[in-house]
Amino acid sequence: MSTHAAGDGPSLPIGPPPVRERADAARNRRRALAAAEALFAERGVHSVTMDDVAAAAGVGKGTLYRRFTDKGGLASALLSERAIALQGEILGGPPPLGPGAPPELRLRAFTTAYLRFQATHLDLVLLSETSTPGARLRKGSYAFWAQHAEMLLRARGVRDPLERAEVLLAGLSAEQVSSWLRDQGRDLEALVEAMGRLADALGSAGT
């Protein structure tokens, strides 16, 4: 797993090292992802089949299934570049999301940025996290988010920093965010503020 230094923190994983692809395989991958992104945007994630993506991309169905397994795999691949962009801001962007701010401010900034990320890409994140049991916890990006939150909580000197980090991430799961926004009709900005307060409480050294 590759790592990048966080400036004033430990190195954090951002995903597996790049794999060298044959030119035709790389081209098919790009075409499949472009087709999936266009179809998901046009028709919605749930209305698109793997066969639809293969036809739009001009690749064989077997090739598509071997590369991505299912729609959850396609969603994960589409989210990967967007997650890496957020990870880059955390690792080297301006404070308080990036290095240089006190850990309590960085934890709140991470919490609100990640909640907005989940809300912006909600259908894709739901598909990637619920395609198979435990998929959310097995994603490479989950390890990054958990280690980053744990690092900040540890810097605050709280008890059980890993467990607190995982509680925070559970509250930011796509299923929970979807329930708040779609089932309960909650306002995103109100949720941002509420989750910011939760991050403050989890990072309080007196608790």
How is the main sheet built? 2 strands, antiparallel
Helical stretch count? Answer: 11
Number of domains: 1
Secondary-structure arrangement, i.e. CATH architecture: Orthogonal Bundle
Mean pLDDT: 88
Strand content: under 5%
Organism: Intrasporangium oryzae NRRL B-24470
Keywords: DNA-binding
Pfam family, one: TetR_N
GO molecular function, one term: DNA-binding transcription factor activity
Give structural notes:
This protein is mostly helical and 207 residues long. It has one domain (2-202): Tetracycline Repressor, domain 2, CATH 1.10.357. 69% of the residues lie in helices and 3% in strands. It has eleven helices and two strands; from the N terminus they run ββααααααααααα. It has helices at residues 23-43, 50-57, 61-68, 71-92, 103-120, 122-130, 135-138, 140-155, 161-171, 174-183, 188-202; strands at residues 2-4, 12-15. Strands 1-2 form a two-stranded antiparallel ribbon. Strand 1 and strand 2 (12-15) form a beta hairpin. The longest helix has 22 residues, at 71-92. The protein is elongated and about 60 Å long.
